[in-house]
UniProtKB/TrEMBL annotation:
Protein name per its UniProtKB record: LLM class flavin-dependent oxidoreductase
Any Pfam family matching the protein: Bac_luciferase
GO molecular function, one term: alkanesulfonate monooxygenase activity
UniProt-listed Gene3D superfamilies: Luciferase-like domain (3.20.20.30)
InterPro entries: Luciferase-like_dom (IPR011251), Luciferase-like_sf (IPR036661), SsuD_RutA_monooxygenase (IPR050172)
Organism, scientific name: Sphingomonas montanisoli
Keyword Oxidoreductase assigned: yes
Domain Luciferase-like: 11-249
Keywords per UniProt: Flavoprotein, FMN, Monooxygenase, Oxidoreductase
């Protein structure tokens, strides 16, 4: 199992010292989330907390994903960074490919491109993108990123994007890993086609059912025997036995966080206490595996 620091929406000055500390403590990576805007008012409920509200976003800094990834990778020598996840359909896919490949090239091949849908129509409206058919738009975006990341000339003619034959330089140091987030059946089918799956969290029983679907979709897609990564952690307490259970389910990478990011309160925990939490976990769980 590889463990990844999943600290998010914390004070900007916390990221670099925390990244250096978790690298020294033996963590494999750092997960960096993505968000573009905070709408002042919205009719859309948030899917990943208990009450559907977005009040927790107030006073929470959300650094641009590729900028934060670059900063963490520059400050470390071994950590990998995984975007968790870039809301790809609201971004221009060619520019996203350029960013992802540049970050990976500069870091010596330490960037994993996690992608998914935005659950908020507000993001699409603000970026001038139609909310309808967002799943199909995501599929086209991934195809464009995948094609450009080869370094060869690549053309694309789809429903949403029409691109003449072009190429970008630099590209990733290895085939750019593309991991897909989302819990719906279409999201799982999409994840089955690519290099990995990123789970947003939930109950263990729900995760087990989801993994069974993912295995089935990978078998259907003919990808069951290809290298694959699953980033996941459920709501259960993390112990060595729990980690082994998740490994048995196929989980390869586990996010680690100690703070409820959906709490309304601003994060005021001192950085030395944050670092101590991650070091303690490394000593009490990671070292016993």
């Amino acid at each position: 199992m590889r463990f990844h620091c999943s600290e998010a929406m914390t004070a900007i000055d916390n990221y670099i010292p925390l990244a250096k500390a978790v690298e020294e403590a033996g963590y494999a990576g750092f997960l960096v989330p993505d968000s573009l805007i905070y709408p002042q008012a919205s009719d859309t409920e948030y899917l990943y907390n208990s009450d559907g509200s977005r009040d927790f976003l107030e006073n929470k800094p959300f650094v641009e994903t590729f900028i934060l990834a670059s900063a963490i990778l520059t400050a470390t020598s071994r950590l990998e960074v995984t975007s968790n996840v870039v809301k790809l359909p609201v971004r221009q896919p060619l520019y996203s490919a350029k960013l992802a490949c540049s970050v990976d090239a500069l870091s010596g091949g330490r960037f994993n491109f996690g992608v998914g849908l935005s659950v908020w129509p507000d993001d699409y409206q603000a970026m001038g993108v139609d909310y309808a058919k967002r799943g199909k738009r995501l599929d086209e975006c991934i195809a464009i990123v995948r094609g450009l990341a080869t370094g060869d000339y690549f053309a694309f003619h789809g429903e949403f994007y029409d691109m003449q034959s072009v190429k970008i330089n630099p590209v990733a140091r290895r085939p750019l890993p593309i991991l897909v987030g989302g819990h719906s059946d279409p999201a799982l089918r999409r994840a089955a086609l690519h290099d990995g799956f990123i789970y947003a969290g939930g109950a263990l029983d729900d995760f087990v059912a989801l993994i069974e679907k993912l295995r089935s979709y990978r078998a259907e897609a003919g990808t069951a025997d290809t290298p694959y990564r699953i980033f996941a952690r459920t709501y259960d307490a993390v112990t060595p036995d729990y980690v082994r259970r998740m490994e048995d389910l196929g989980v390869t990478d586990m996010p680690v966080a100690f703070r409820n990011m959906y709490a309304n309160e601003e994060d005021t925990q001192p950085i030395d206490e944050k670092i101590a939490d991650y070091v303690r976990f490394a000593d009490e769980v990671m070292a016993k595996l």
